[in-house]
Request: fold
Amino acid sequence: AALTTQHEQLLKEFRLLQDQLDQQLRSREESVHELARLQGLLEAKSFETGRLQPLESALRAKEADLVQARRREQEHATELEALRGQVSELQRQEEVRKRELEGTQAEVIRLH
Reply:
């Protein structure tokens, strides 16, 4: 029962991390679109004096955000992979215990 509870908790954490990664990916895609939009604006405004600097600053800020999002995405992917390994190990242990229990039950039946 404790193993099953632990297994269920790990699966919940796994799904939560998956959801977080999906959300970060959507956010990253939005950032990429926003970055492209800002880059287009930057090129259109490059001929207008006095407006170039704020757009460059916004672009740099978006690029920094994107780099940070990529780093977080990689960290979460690493965590997700570790959780997958834990889930696989728990499933393997659960199968071993199930076989042991079946063997014990067969032995009890045989002894009766």
